[in-house]
Amino acid sequence: xxxxxxxxxxxxxxxxxxxxxxxxxxxxxxxxxxxxxxxxxxxxxxxxxxxxxxxxxxxxxxxxxxxxxxxxxxxxxxxxxxxxxxxxxxxxxxxxxxxxxxxxxxxxxxxxxxxxxxxxxxxxxxxxxxxxxxxxxxxxxxxxxxxxxxxxxxxxxxxxxxxxxxxxxxxxxxxxxxxxxxxxxxxxxxxxxxxxxxxxxxxxxxxxxxxxxxxxxxxxxxxxxxxxxxxxxxxxxxxxxxxxxxxxx
Length: 249
Fold this sequence. Notes:
249 residues; alpha/beta; 4-stranded antiparallel sheet; 7 helices; 28% helix
């Protein structure tokens, strides 16, 4: 079972409550807070390209990168006919990021970094980002907190629409700090029959201080943490934590 194969085609239908507009507003607040002129933006692990599309229509020039060909195909389709400069799409994993030049800012949204289940992969990703963010440029990403992932152990979640039925079962391993999600996805076919797909997703819990240390080691500075879409710091037990950092000169 692979992640984001069958799920790519129904991802948008199942994530209608994410609030992308509000999150795009928040990213722009962090752009403005940094006082860095931001024109070119890397959307790392762009998924189906919802944030790519929003930022493009707000006047930014986007490079969108994702490791899943299926998610990237959905992102390309979504970008057709957008106002603004057409995004550039690249099929790459985060640790193997390789751009043709630099960007003013990079964003990595919706806990995509947690999908890197090896600390070495996270460190490598930060190193690659430093290469392709311009000196003085901005990095923004968010994570599912360690507290959130640990609390998911043994949980079952259900998402459904008229044509999609999706069950998520979770297990958290405290030794590996990994949360495994088993996904059973049922989609209604044109003839009314239902087709079943299975996927497995894994996310690793990271502590704020280890991520901060790896950012500093990679050459970033002014590392700041925030609560979920807030301009203040994370609270105890925060479910989602945002990071911002400046690429050192």
